């Protein structure tokens, strides 16, 4: 079981590394950290507390906290989607918190809802016992043309975690395998 203190320490360390702050509202912050801990206990990874996770690591990879969308959200709006991470001006109360539009593509959101979609349907005795399919993820190898960071996943990150280059600086790598 992950302690709430460990979850908080991990978030604080990440915030400091990237020049962010944690939300200054103590009660709100505590609820977010509790959500992260519950998701980590439930799924085995700390999925974003403000988004629906599927429980499939490959489907949820983009919403593991800190999610792929955090940096562009903090840069543009002063806070990430769930407001766990904030800029200094927001932390100091100079800029108010504001609602942020969802950056996660609808297709990725839909995959998170897919496992539950068949549960409300009427079932007959002749219906197969398991009709839901696990979403197929086509992972690719991406590299940052600026610093050389390499990642194996469906899409490149919005911002390189090493050098902060934008998504456009990532290129797909092809690997030739000799049989």
Kindly describe this structure:
The protein is of the alpha+beta class and 179 residues long. Among the domains are: 4-91, Ferredoxin Thioredoxin Reductase, CATH 3.90.460; 140-173, Single Sheet (Rubrerythrin, domain 2), CATH 2.20.28. 34% of the residues lie in helices and 9% in strands. The protein is built from 6 helices and 5 strands, in the order αβαααβααβββ. The strands form 2 sheets. Strands 4-3-5 form a 3-stranded antiparallel beta sheet, with no helix packed on it. It has a two-stranded antiparallel sheet with strand order 1-2. A hairpin with a 5-residue loop joins strand 3 (140-144) and strand 4 (150-153). Helix 1 (4-18) crosses helix 2.
Key attributes of the depicted protein:
179 residues, alpha+beta, Ferredoxin Thioredoxin Reductase, Rubrerythrin, domain 2, 3-stranded antiparallel sheet, two-stranded antiparallel ribbon, 5 strands, 34% helix
Briefly say what this structure is.
With about 180 residues, the chain is α+β, with helices and mostly antiparallel strands. It is built from 6 helices and 5 strands.
SSE diagram, text form:
Elements lengths: L3 H15 L2 E2 L3 H18 L13 H4 L9 H8 L7 E2 L1 H4 L14 H12 L22 E5 L5 E4 L16 E4 L6
Antiparallel strand pairs: 1-2, 3-4, 3-5
Helix pairs in contact: 1-2
